[in-house]
Amino acid sequence: MNVIHTDRAPSHTGPVPQAVEAGGWVHVSALFGADPDGHAIPGDARAEAEQLFDNLAAILDAAGAGLTDVVRVGIVMRHLQRDRPVFNAVWTERFGDHRPARSAVGSPDFGRAGEEPRFMIEVTAYVAHLSRR
Length: 133
Fold this sequence. Notes:
alpha+beta, CATH 3.30.1330.40, deaminase activity, Deaminase, 2 helices, six-stranded mixed sheet, single chain
């Protein structure tokens, strides 16, 4: 197993890696739309979703993967019905015709104490050439 880290995405405060790769499978830990430097959450849902995808792309790149390698995304939204249309718009812009499996659930309480993120994702990607290491 290889631990993946990049300074271009926020790190966890606890003993949690940004991602790990094993046998070509890249598993991205709970990821938020926070700024990589100050961990600030953007003020509106669209900006937060865009930052979240920027963070995801940076972590995948550090693992030798990209958005087209994503096979599954689990999404947690603080306000599922309200924010899903905005999230879906950014999803479509970033993934284009690529359609990974996905689930979305609502939860009023997740993230770090004192922060109010709208979105959290966990991602699985597969990169065949990494499986031959």
